[in-house]
Amino acid sequence: MGDFKRRLKRQRCIDEADMPVRDGLKKSLVGVIDDGTKTVRFVIYEAERSEELAAYQLDKTEVQPQEGWYEQDPMEIINHIRICSENSIEQLTELGYSREDIVTLGITNQRETTIAWDKFTGEPLHPAIAWNDIRTDSTVDAILARVPDRNKNYLKSISGLPISPYFSALKMRWMKDNIKAVRRASRDKRLLFGTVDSWIVWNLTGGPQGGLHITDVTNASRTLLMDLETLNWDPMLCRLFGIHRDSLPQIRSSSELYGIVKDGSILDGISISGILGNQQAALVGQNCLLAGQAKNTYRSGCFLLYNTGPRRVQSTHGLITTVAYKLGPNAPPVYALEGSIAVAGGAMKFLRDNLKLIKDVAKDTEHIAGQVFSTGDVYFVPAFSGLYAPYWRKDARGIICGLTAFTTKNHIIRAALEAVCFQTRDILEAMNKDCGMPLSKLHVDGNMTSNDLLMQLQADLIGIPVLRAHSWDMSALGAAVSAGHSCGVWSVERWRNHATPADTFLPTTTDDDRDARYTKWKMAVQRSLGWATTKKSITMTGQTKRKYSTVTNHSQSVDVPTSPPQSRKGSFVDGQSIDYDKFGNPITDDGVDDNVEELIKYSARKFSIFVPINSENDEKTILDDAEYYMSKKECDYGMCQCCQTKKKLQTDWETIEEIIENDPEIIFDGDDNPIVVEQRNDSIVTPSIGLNNGTQLGIVPKVFKHICSKLQHTSLT
Questions:
Q1: What pLDDT sits at residue 421?
Q2: Is residue 31 scored above 80 in pLDDT?
């Protein structure tokens, strides 16, 4: 009798909707806009269910105008969202639902990708610069030149991030330096900057007609402009990078009612109540909501996030500190450590497109690599454009080593799979050292996880169970949880106790075996370092001061350039990089702040000044110390422990680069102590002096002659 009543009730629900509904129960629906690097998706979930109800996706067009440059069309993103949402909602009628059942929208997006647009016209001022774009190398040099010791980690105590082309502030600064339309929009107070989530929300909520310019804490934490403690834009960082506060979005939590869609599309009238960066969204979707849990997403790159709870862990092993989520305006923020791997699935595409070893990435990699039981001692380091965490070495390049006469393509393909696993172990090792809490299991998702061999290799090489989610894309699910939570249809507490279905892979190797293989991987990484030798920019070498002669006359200072402004090579996009007013005077924008030491002396950590060594130390090999290359940093102008002594100046003075950089404000007293003074109109008269090799200095400026007189005892060899 009871079964009959249940069947009758289910049939009544079906009759009311005139269409079949899963389990005979209608639930509230949550829509998710999922903007990835390659695709745009619109996904619909039933509240508190992890399976997708309906979905539709379109591929994006990515343009590569130069090597290492990656651009996307911002308008294409908006158009794809409208098409995908229409097609997804059409599928609802077959499932007994309608558009009116969608109670709210969530947004998850590719992080660090940066867009500049005009707030009055809504037009993008430049293509979106993608997260993996490396054009900002010169901008990084300009920032590092003003940071004490040129230390790329100097701002980590505030933002949690190193100074790297990876993050949005550098992309914003590059556009202001090189794109004339962006400079003019900034000068006219009509410039808006934002990551993709800001661009989407602004367009959906009205655009030029009152669109909301907002972002959430997870995306803001990837810009290098947000203070991790206050969760707001840091005035010092904005001033340092020359980004005006008015052009940046308002920072909100990851789960709250932001506004209503007002773009005239099929989504019109639906509220927006959840925003998360895609990797943080995957952390929520994987239900890693407790401190000590971690997830790894395997796509073109890999992104491993480790939940540290309310504690902000400052990594000393090459990881970055980021906001994991903040589920409500009054909820406490939850932080995470993150390690990013530049090349994961990209290595498989390299084998397919460049080496022609496989035809289908999904099928051939598992099948061909599975025909051999090991790599035959072959190791593949896919550092095609450098190594990300925990090394952060842009001078590394890809290598395949350990080849013998018996090596086949099977071994190379298997080595490529193992490279993904070894890079994941690199990050886990660093996380264990930073947190002191070894991971007990690793949750994984992403399209590469369909490869069973890869998952088993991962478990074997890290020595802990690997749990693969049944859904390959957990980012959209996490955004649905966040949006549904703010509307009261998806309880986070219930979700935290929800057991997410997963396949488990257990390690099958011994500790000795996996450690021996990992040691050889570190040897391969060692050999990949230092391959790319990039020329230091003028800013980094301190040569810019040679182009100007500063004449101080009481309180007035005049800069006299040696060449006209038109000859400046600051912009290779617009050509001429300086605008002029109607009177012919150059118009300057708020650029990178020179007074960085004054700005950060009260908030950033102090670092010691380099002191030249007098004797050469024997450099340890990777076999002597497996951790050596975890902490090894770039050689900075030959002033590192690994450089030969003969390349250094054996002198008690500061290095010659620092002396030249500080001229002409340095003179010396009778005890040969350097004194910084202001140079006046009267020149310093010094007799012509030669160096030890007898070189005549008749053409050298007089102030240089005076400096050289203090270096006569110095050997330049």
A1: 92
A2: yes
* pLDDT tens per residue across span 492-506: 888 877 767 788 999
> Comparing C-alpha atoms, which of 336, 295, 296, 292 is closest to residue 314?
336
Q: Quickly tell me which residue has 């030798």 as its tokens.
A: 533
Q: How, if at all, do strands 466-469 and 442-445 pair?
A: parallel
If DSSP states are collapsed to H, E and C, what string results for 586-607?
Answer: EECCCCCCCCHHHHHCCCCCCC
By three-state DSSP, how is residue 398 classified? coil
Angle between helices 345-353 and 361-369 (to 10 degrees): 90
Instruction: Report residue 323 as tokens.
Output: 């906001």
Q: What is the 3-state secondary structure (H, E, C) of 420-478?
A: HHHHHHHHHHHHHHHHCCCCCCEEEECHHHHCHHHHHHHHHHHCCCEEEECCCCCHHHH
* Integer CA distances (angstroms), 202 to 117, 118, 275, 291, 308, in order: 11, 11, 13, 34, 32
Residue type at 132? N
Closest Cα to residue 323, out of 274, 276, 287? 276
- Is the pTM higher than 0.90? The answer reads no
Q: Which H or E run contains 229?
A: none
| CA 614 to each of CA 272, 641, 678, 716: distance values in angstroms, whole numbers, following the listed order | 63, 11, 33, 14
Residue 26 clears pLDDT 90, i.e. is over it: no
DSSP string over 647-705: GS--SSSPPHHHHHHHTTSEEE-TT--EEE----SSPPP------TT----TTS-HHHH
Interatomic CA distance for residues 110 and 300, integer angstroms: 13
Residue 18 backbone class (left: φ over 0; alpha: ψ -120 to 50; beta: rest): left
578 CB-near residues (< 8 Å, 6+ apart): 565, 566, 568, 570, 586, 587, 588
For 587, list phi and psi in degrees, rounded to 5: -105, 120
